[in-house]
Amino acid sequence: MDNSSSCLCPTTATLFFLPTVYTLLFLTALPGNALSLWVFLRCIPTVSPTHVYLSHLSISNLLLSLTTPFLAAYYAWGLVWTQSNVLCQVVLHGITPVLHINIYISIIILTWVALSRFAALIQRTHASRPSSCITLLPNAFFTRLTKASFASRVCFTVWAVTVGCIVPITVYYSVKEAKSSNTSTAGGDGEAEKRVVCYNPTVEIGGPVSAAFSVPLITVFFVCYVLVLLSYMTVMRHVRRSRRSTNVTTSHCLLGRVLRNIVVIQVVLSVCLLPYHIFKPIFLAMAHHRQRTPAANSCHPLATFVELKNCLLLLAALRGSTDPVMYFLLDKTFRHQTLTLLGCNQSKPGGRAMQGSITGSVSQRAGQLGDGNMATMELSHENAL
Question: In what residue span(s) does the G-protein coupled receptors family 1 profile domain sit (predicted)?
Answer without folding.
Answer: 32-327
